[in-house]
Every structure is written in structure tokens, then in C-alpha cells.
Specification:
Its EC number is 2.4.2.2. It is built from 16 helices and 13 strands. The protein is α/β, with parallel strands linked by helices. Helix 10 (about 210-225) links the parallel strand 4 and strand 5 (about 230-240).
Length: about 425
Amino acid sequence: MNTVEIINKKKYGEALSYEEIEYMIDGYVNDTIPDYQIASWLMAVYFQGLNSDETSALTDFMVKSGETIDLSFLNTTVVDKHSTGGVGDKVSLVVAPIITSLGIPFAKMSGRGLGHTGGTVDKLESIKGFHTELPLDRFKEQVQELGIALVGQSGNLVPADKKIYALRDVTGTVDSIPLIASSIMSKKIASGADAIVLDIKVGNGAFMKTEEEARKLAETMVAIGKKLNRETVAVLTNMDQPLGTEIGNGNEVLEAVKLLRDQEYSQDLYDVSVEIAAQMVYLAGKATTEEQGRKLVEEVIQNGDAYEKFVTFIEAQDGDMSSIHEIEAKQSIDVTSEKAGYISSVETQQMGEAAMLLGAGRKTKDDQIDHQVGITFHVKLGDKLQAGDKLATIHTNIEDNAAVIQKIKDAITITQTPVQVNPSVIDVIH
């Protein structure tokens, strides 16, 4: 085969064969096709797209480019979840112990965050002593014994995706739906998932800003799952405001724990977490309907089973549960409203950026995260408030917080008339 011919074929909008996609991926991974030719091919894909067969083939060959994790020894359906990312997204921390307490194994390799806040691994590392690195044998053993393990990504899983993503990042081809879809799905499949639930965030704090974009991405990934024999469901969820009340790392863990203990929680975090968990329960065959799945999920929150499973999980990976109840930032500063009215909009990305200024996220992959800083968000869209009411509280270890405070104030719009608030769960796509 000829690389230039394949590039030209895609440039003119023609569909590539299974063998041509295999040739491109295999050649790039094995360094027989250089960066500049793959960059050219990626740009052709960006403008011309990939059809369903091409996207599935790309996903399949990315999976086959490295090692895969075999969890068949569990003799049950392994369901994984993936979120496209948002501000205050701690859903994995809530969902993992819920489904495990219902007899569904949760074996997840999760990444670190790059951007406004940490990833799930970063959040867990705010717990003193918690180990996010386990040898693969120990990882499997813990899943078999306890039903749950969550560690950082390691090994040689999907090397093609690592190389291609790095190139997409510097060639302006990140926001291509078939490339996004194949990247996400290849990692889930290589990690041993039999079934996958996707949390597709949509709104001003999400990668997908419009429902149309989010729906297209969801449908693409569900189609990949079907072609590669993985039951896949996508849930569209609202990211027009931070999810829950906490943005950060240690404070997000504490918020997840409060929900699991059925003590106090933000309704949007509860609704999204229950829906994602219910879909996982349904795909695992533990419920005959999605509604039955929701009831089972709510029961294990209310009876304490999910919280007990969380404690078992944390202690199994050497975490100190007592440290979860401490916010150790040097000071907390309230940000108050200058006028009365209704919360009509929140620039969610700005709220995330404010948390990053505190040190809760990374500007570059080498930045160190401060696990104890963050923001407590006291208001929600549609709330009525008076002048002087608290909008947020920042938990900070830096001396000059003026830029953080101003960014939070600028992110929140207050009007004199009430606004309609969209639901937290927008749609479920099968």
C-alpha cells in the first residue's frame, strides 16, 4: 500500500478499507510512517470525517496496537464508565461503590487530569496513603476479592492512541468526533470492558457545547460499541453549571462521601450519579429494566451498603478514611453577591479555571496539584438571592486571591427575572 494514496483518498472524501486503516495505524506505531504523513491524514479525517465502519476499524486497530486486560476470569459482565469531563465531575467516586455493592465488578484504569481540576486518580490521591499504582496481578486479585479496584493508567494499553492524541493536540485536530470517539472507546475496550456507559457532558463547561454536538458524539460511540460487540449506552448530562457543589480534589471526595452516606447532596450530582449507575446495573443484567436499576441504586445509598463498599475499597488501597473529613487549606474566603436577583447563567469553564488558579488543576502535564484547595459553589441556576449572600467559598493556600475572586464573580450572571433551568439528565441514547 501507499501512504500518499491513502491520504489522498481520504482528502477527496472516499471511504478507506479496513486494510488501509490497519496499514496507517500499524505503520505509525512501528515508526514506518512518519509524523508528518499521519498529521496530513488526520487533517483529511478532520475535514472529511469517517463513516461508521471506518471509525470502528480505527478503534479496533488502536485496541490491537498494544496490550489488553483480560477480565474474563471474573465470569460476569464487566461494565465500565467514561465521562467526557466537566467541572466538579466526581461521578466515578459515587458510582464505583454503588455498582460494586450490587455485585457488579468495577475494574477501572483512570487518567490524571489536565486542565481545571484533577482526574479521578488525582482526587483519590487527596486521601492520605491511598495508592493509585498497583501491579496488574494485584489489580486483578483485588477486583476478584472485593469487586473493586481503581488505579492510574499503566502498561502498554492503546499505544496508538497515545501517539495519535499527542499529534492531534499540536495539529488542531482534537475536536473531530470520529477521532474523539475512537480514542475513548479504544481505551475502554482495551481495559477489559464488556459493556460501557458513557457520560457525555454538554454545555458551556463541557467539550461539547451544544446538544447537537453531544448527541452526534454519543451516537458515534454507541455505534462503535455495537460493531465491536460491546453493549454501549450514552447519557447526555448538563454541564451549564458545576456538577454538585465542590470543585477541586479533596473537597470533591468529601462531597462524594456525603452523598454515599445519604447525608447531604446536591440534587444534580445525585440525579446524574443515579442515572449512570442505573444504566450500568441494567447493562450488567442485575436489573430487568432501567427503572428497576434506579431503585436498586437508591436502595444501596439509603441502606449504607454503597458507603461501606467505598470504605472497604479505600482501605484496601491503603487510604486513611479519617483524612477525607479534613480540608486543610490555609484559609477560606467567601465570595458574595453584590446585588439581589436570580442566578441566570454560570460560565462553568471560568469556574473551573478559577479552581486551577488556586492549584487544583494542571496547566501542563508536569504541574503538581494541590489536593486541598478548591471552591465550594453555594448557588445553582435559578436560585434567588439577596445582596451579600454567598456565591462561593474558596479554599486557598496562595496569598493573592484577587484574580480568583474576580473570575468567580465574572462567571455568574444575576438577573431580576427567574430563568428556566434545564434538567441534569438530558437524554439516554441506546
